[in-house]
């Protein structure tokens, strides 16, 4: 099976550019629920036209419904999926596990692809996606060549890899910077890209979070050999010429083994940020990956556009065709056309006449029938059956060819719909009323030393990196002792598994998990699962899904308001993050240092306003923490409507921890600088 070239399409013109340049499939967004809300996207009419256009030309269409969906929005997302099924869409890309659950019920015949927003970056994560019902998983961009190969060769489902396009500083699905700093959620397709603004480390450039565009187009044959199913191009916000250049480069790399230098220059010219990087794939991470859009990049784009427009000015003959022409005395002339997918069309014309001079010959017929320009077809084989001494005007042959091809093209765009039955729902929203008693207290500490004497809580977690002695002491002190599984475990899956086994032996039997990679590992080792913020649980269907997966509790999505969160009780115990200097980004490329071995893991970034954001690194990944902690100590009314309250301590001293705990006991606001986060308004 050949490697699929999957192209972005932000609008109808980009669809044509992708198809004409040689894409095997395109992915596009609906008017809602797309992770690129600012792209042109498609409504019902333009989506229908795009799907027919692609299917006629043998190109697959994937619909991106890849955002987090709130409870009240699920019906709208299902309606978009129903339209996709009516059009016999080839796949739907999904991030929200609640929506995935509903789609499995509604349309078992619909192919589901796990979005890169699900942050899958290990074989364990891929295995969980397969168990959840996905047919394909889009891996995180941060993986190296060796890590991709290891996953692809053992994956139970298809694997898709990004090969070209913009790079976010954060692991997709684990970024809250746009939401917390401006109320626009990257997890709902409305990222304001604050990372492209100046953020300066102590000794680095002023744009330490702005990465160059990614490009591993030269490695497509290598990816194919690994078992990767699809090579994905990022860029639904980009113009059609960009799509044409990227697809053409991929086509050349895969088919010819190399990209012509002038084409690569045009691709760089149409859009780049100081050139491209392959840092994640090759393992050459560091400050060399940083880049911004400069005046020279804009000038290069102006030169490249006219050249690229010529690449897609005409139809690309990509669909092989078979003809059978019958010209027989006393019968209408007849031309049958069929393709290799067994679509067939027949056209009839006038009866032939006895030739007065020169009879119709095979060479003349072949010449006319091969004139398929302006269509996606090319003639692979012809069966010509001519009676003796007959004549048929060439204009009649041309008319037969046009009629047959028009009908065949129409048939190729008509497919049986995928059956869709409106699914049942996981109960009605719970009444937003205060519960009796205080919410159960779930607390994550950065170290054992932070925990005050006499402190009590229903659940206490330490990072999985805590020492054996700390974990043993924790389990001796708290019946509900657990570990926080790291969100990032690039290339460290087995090391994390061994640490989990050690934590279990120390008596820590609970696991706070933020990614599906961690869920799989903790589940396999027998831990009681507690969902963390990274799972982005935002609707009742997602809660039902994780309840059935064996979770004991779940923290609700950080981007829900308290009021929205309070409507999600009643399925399993749910909680809200009420305190913590929460991570705004999870990164594999450290913005503050080039050499982890020479770094103590404590860095910082300063934005253009002088605000300082701590950067904390461990296990080959880093987190950018918010400049101030979230604190809802005086929001007892809103918190009392939930089952749990999460407190997330990172670097506070024991005295600072005691002060925060006192604030919550007394229900008073802090005197230190803090934020309410998204508890009041939520996000767009």
From TrEMBL:
The chain positions of domain Peptidase U32 collagenase read: 309-412
Which branch of life, at top level? Bacteria
Q: Where is the signal peptide?
A: none
Q: Which InterPro entries match?
A: Pept_U32_collagenase, Peptidase_U32, RibuloseP-bd_barrel, RNA/ubiquinone_mod_enzymes
One Pfam family assigned to this protein is DUF3656
**What is the protein name given in its UniProt record?**
Peptidase U32 collagenase domain-containing protein
Q: Which organism is it from?
A: Solibaculum mannosilyticum
């Amino acid at each position: 099976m050949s490697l699929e070239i999957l192209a972005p399409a932000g609008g109808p013109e980009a669809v044509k550019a992708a198809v004409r340049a040689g894409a095997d499939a395109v992915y596009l967004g609906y008017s809602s629920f797309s992770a690129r809300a600012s792209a042109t996207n498609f409504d019902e009419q333009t989506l229908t036209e795009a799907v027919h256009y692609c299917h006629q030309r043998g190109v697959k269409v994937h619909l991106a419904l890849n955002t987090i969906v709130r409870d009240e929005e699920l019906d709208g997302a299902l309606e978009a999926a129903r339209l996709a099924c009516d059009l016999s869409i080839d796949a739907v890309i999904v991030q929200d596990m609640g929506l995935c659950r509903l789609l499995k019920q509604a349309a078992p015949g619909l192919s589901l692809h796990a979005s890169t927003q699900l942050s899958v970056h290990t074989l364990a994560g891929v295995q969980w996606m397969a168990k959840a019902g996905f047919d394909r998983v889009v891996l995180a961009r941060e993986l190296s060549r060796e890590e991709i190969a290891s996953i692809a060769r053992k994956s139970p489902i298809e694997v898709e890899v990004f090969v070209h396009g913009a790079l976010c500083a954060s692991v997709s699905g684990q970024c809250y910077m746009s939401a917390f700093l401006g109320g626009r959620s990257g997890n709902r397709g409305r990222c304001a890209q604050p990372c492209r603004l100046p953020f300066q480390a102590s000794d680095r450039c002023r744009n330490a979070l702005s990465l160059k565009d990614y490009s591993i187009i030269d490695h497509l044959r290598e990816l194919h050999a690994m078992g990767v199913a699809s090579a994905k191009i990022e860029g639904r916000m980009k113009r059609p010429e960009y799509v044409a250049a990227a697809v053409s480069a991929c086509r050349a790399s895969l088919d010819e083994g190399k990209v012509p230098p002038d084409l690569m220059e045009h691709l760089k010219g149409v859009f780049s940020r100081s050139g491209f990087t392959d840092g994640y794939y090759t393992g050459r991470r560091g400050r060399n990956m940083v880049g911004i859009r400069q005046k020279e990049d804009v000038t290069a784009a102006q030169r490249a556009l006219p050249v690229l427009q010529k690449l897609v000015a005409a139809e690309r003959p990509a669909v092989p065709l078979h003809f059978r022409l019958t010209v027989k005395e006393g019968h209408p002339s007849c031309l049958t056309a069929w393709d290799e997918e067994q679509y067939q069309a027949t056209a009839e014309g006038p009866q032939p006449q006895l030739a007065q001079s020169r009879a119709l010959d095979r060479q003349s017929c072949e010449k006319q029938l091969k004139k398929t320009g302006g269509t996606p077809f090319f003639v692979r084989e012809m069966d010509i059956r001519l009676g003796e001494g007959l004549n048929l005007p060439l204009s009649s042959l041309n008319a037969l060819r046009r009629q047959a091809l028009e009908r065949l093209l129409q048939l190729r765009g008509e497919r049986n719909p995928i059956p869709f039955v409106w699914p049942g729902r996981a109960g009605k929203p719970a009444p937003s009323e205060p519960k009796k008693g205080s919410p159960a207290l779930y607390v994550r500490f950065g170290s054992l030393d932070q925990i005050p004497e006499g402190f009590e809580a229903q659940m206490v977690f330490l990072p999985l990196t805590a020492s054996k002695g700390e974990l043993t002491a924790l389990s001796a002190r708290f019946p509900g002792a657990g570990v926080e599984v790291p969100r990032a475990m690039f290339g460290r899956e087995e090391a994390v598994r061994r640490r989990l086994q050690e934590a279990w032996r120390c008596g820590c039997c609970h696991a706070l998990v933020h990614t599906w990679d961690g869920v799989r590992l903790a589940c396999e080792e027998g831990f009681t699962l507690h969902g963390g913020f990274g799972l982005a649980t935002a609707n009742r269907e997602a809660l039902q899904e994780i309840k059935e997966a064996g979770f004991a509790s779940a923290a609700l999505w950080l981007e829900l308001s308290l009021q929205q969160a309070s409507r999600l009780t009643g399925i399993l115990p749910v909680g809200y993050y009420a305190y913590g200097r929460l991570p705004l980004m999870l990164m594999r490329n450290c913005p503050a240092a080039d050499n982890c071995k020479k770094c103590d893991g404590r860095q910082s970034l300063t934005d253009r306003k002088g605000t300082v954001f701590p950067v904390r690194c461990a296990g080959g990944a880093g987190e950018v923490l918010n400049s101030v902690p979230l604190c809802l100590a005086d929001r007892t009314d809103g918190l009392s409507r939930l089952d749990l309250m999460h407190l997330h301590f990172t670097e506070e001293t024991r005295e600072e921890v005691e002060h925060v705990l006192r604030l919550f006991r007394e229900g008073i606001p802090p005197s230190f600088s803090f934020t309410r986060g998204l508890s009041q308004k939520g996000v767009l």
